[in-house]
Write a structure and sequence with these properties.
470 residues; alpha/beta; Rossmann fold; Transcription Regulator spoIIAA; 6-stranded parallel beta sheet; 5-stranded mixed beta barrel; 16 helices
Amino acid sequence: MDRTQVVLPAEDVRRQEEFTRRLAALLRRPDRQPMAMVDTYGCQQNVADSQRLMGMLRDMGCGFTQDPYGADVIVVNTCAIRENAEKKVFGVVGQLVHAKEKNPDVIICLCGCMAQQETVAAKIKNSYRHVDLVFGPQALWKFPELLYGVCTEHKRAFSIADEHGTIAEGLPVVRESGVKAWVSIMYGCNNFCSYCIVPYVRGRERSREAECVLAEVRELVEAGYKEITLLGQNVNSYGKDLDEPLDFADLLREIDKIPGDYLIRFMTSHPKDAGPKLFETMAECSHVAKQIHLPVQSGSSRVLKAMNRGYTREQYLEKVRLARAAMPDVVLTSDIIIGFPGETEAEAMETVALIEEVRYDALFTFIYSPRPGTPAARLPDPVSREEKQVWFDRLLDAQNRISGELHRSYVGRTLRVLADGESGDPAWPLSSRTAGGRLVHLRGDTSLIGQYVDARITGSNTWALFGEAL
């Protein structure tokens, strides 16, 4: 794809604005504001996508509710990364039939990565006839046009064509927090890890122009946002499709020049594309958090090759060494898959040995879930789910011990944290995060929310720290 194909023409965005104005008139109620419910599953990119959908719904005149029985428009934004996520969504969508029975005029929409799969769309079409609109991630920008068609033609619509992805600048957004914000810097994925459905549902990698990213970050900083997370399926691939020679490390340096009291995070980094330039840039940029999520997936080089990850165990460990050489206090987190097809117990234990060597601050751990349409789903998988669970439990035991030990090392220290919300626990009323992303349950007044504060760490457990605002 060339850049003229990728970047959506401005007149196409303006066309959607016209449909938005028409929908505002169609959805208007004489006695109340029309209400929308947006229910989001999956990754941070889905959260960012939902915020764009909420922006469009807001411009249609909608308020927001989490009560499906009080909504005029319901949008379920889905995730396809694991089987359990899909089962949960089907359960939720099935329950929405009751909302349709109570209010036949409610418009129910299914979108996101699940919706882009032909098998899912067919299942919705045949078995969930109360769903009015189905569209994939590539069609998000034309949500107003699709919704208008459902409202005026009074028939179901499906927009799941295998089209190349685009970048639509200028879409409205509703950010649910005034403290933290998501900024997508690129979309899609070119890596085709053998277990992953994402490249098939989100399309090829495409980077936003640097000036668009910088303008959005600058606007957020000026609005008082304190923590901004840059998003992409593989942020380290940023810029490869741009005409100007600018990579992800260069983008971080440009963002770092924006004045203000804020912190930049990013996810996700693919290890094969992370290297010394990125780590040195992180170390030198005062606004960039010294934290990196670096998914390893397996500690076995043979399994990594079968996963099509593009690096060996030894190469990954060298990346960790380089990151810690540049940033001795870097906080490292990772993703692990246990039970990949053909994996042996010895190979699973190689993964346990790797986490003992690296000593991650935290892990996101999963038992392999086959995704139809991916190469791994066609591999023989002789190991039982019960045996994989035994391996998984050994991994969790090791990581929980490591996380507990690392967290205990914080006790007695004073750290700068961002108070980002209420915890719901009267004993520790504030939720906060360290610069390394560690959760701190904090004693302090709720007036501190949205501010950086110094906190004395007084306790810890496997998953969090506890402290007092000074």
